[in-house]
């Protein structure tokens, strides 16, 4: 899928988690619902850090371009090192390591640790990166024609405001994880979820997604998971724009209402 569909599905997924959490007796304070949905929308773009023309690889200038090259090389190396006889030869790392559940859990877990241990600046940093991505993903064309600097300023401002709101007592810094010292541990959850939702979105497209790596399926460790071929669509096709995106919006709306206790 393309950026906007990935981001929308990420936001909708977090709103759905909000509804499920409310039903399970852990309702999210509204700042957790809103921040989580935006973080998840941003994180749903992150696995494409292995592709140089992806939104995330352009979003932070030379910094993200360099990181993209490093991630692409590492992914390709891991692919070559772990491929089995059934896996094909590939020339680059796109849709390999960063498109697996292992990557999702490692990145989300790392961010949780960082948020918990790193204090206010770590939380601000995580929020900033994901707000910039959420703006790029959700506003798409509007963000593309404006300058990068403008998007960064908007990301920094929203990160600052949201961090201030979350920090107020009762606003959710210790949602779900309530022991002392576990503040902001939940920040990794929308990041894991965003990456997984991205992988599911890619699995629906023609090429599939090796999300289960390193669990071997048949003679392939990088088995491209997906529905039967007839149910797959091309990235950026009308199915994505005219069917899936409206569905994500409706589901997200229902999830949000459920999370806030209206339904
Ligand atoms: Zn992808």
From TrEMBL:
UniProt key word Chloroplast: no
Entry keyword set: Hydrolase, Membrane, Transmembrane, Transmembrane helix
A Pfam family that the UniProt record links to this protein: YdjM
Membrane-spanning parts: 121-142, 149-166, 241-262
UniProt key word Phosphoprotein: no
GO molecular function: hydrolase activity
Protein name per Swiss-Prot or TrEMBL: Metal-dependent hydrolase
């Amino acid at each position: 899928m393309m950026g906007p569909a990935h981001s929308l599905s990420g936001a909708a997924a977090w709103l759905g988690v909000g509804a499920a959490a409310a039903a399970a007796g852990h309702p999210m304070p509204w700042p957790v619902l809103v921040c989580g949905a935006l973080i998840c929308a941003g994180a749903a773009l992150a696995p494409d850090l292995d592709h140089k023309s992806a939104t995330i690889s352009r979003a932070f200038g030379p910094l993200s371009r360099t990181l993209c090259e490093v991630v692409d090389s590492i992914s390709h190396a891991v692919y070559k090192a772990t491929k089995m006889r059934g896996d094909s030869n590939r020339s680059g790392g796109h849709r390999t390591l960063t498109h697996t559940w292992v990557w999702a859990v490692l990145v989300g877990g790392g961010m949780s640790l960082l948020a918990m241990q790193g204090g206010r600046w770590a939380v601000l940093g995580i929020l900033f990166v994901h707000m910039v991505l959420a703006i790029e993903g959700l506003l798409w064309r509007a963000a593309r024609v404006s300058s990068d600097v403008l998007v960064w300023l908007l990301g920094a401002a929203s990160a600052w405001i949201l961090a201030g709101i979350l920090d107020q007592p009762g606003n959710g810094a210790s949602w779900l994880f309530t022991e002392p010292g576990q503040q902001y541990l939940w920040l990794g959850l929308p990041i894991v979820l965003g990456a997984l939702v991205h992988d599911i979105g890619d699995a629906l497209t023609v090429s599939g997604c090796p999300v289960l790596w390193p669990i071997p399926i048949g003679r392939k460790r990088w088995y491209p998971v997906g529905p039967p071929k007839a149910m797959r669509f091309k990235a950026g096709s009308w199915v994505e724009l005219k069917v899936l995106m409206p569905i994500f919006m409706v589901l997200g709306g229902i999830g949000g209402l459920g999370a806030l206790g209206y339904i």
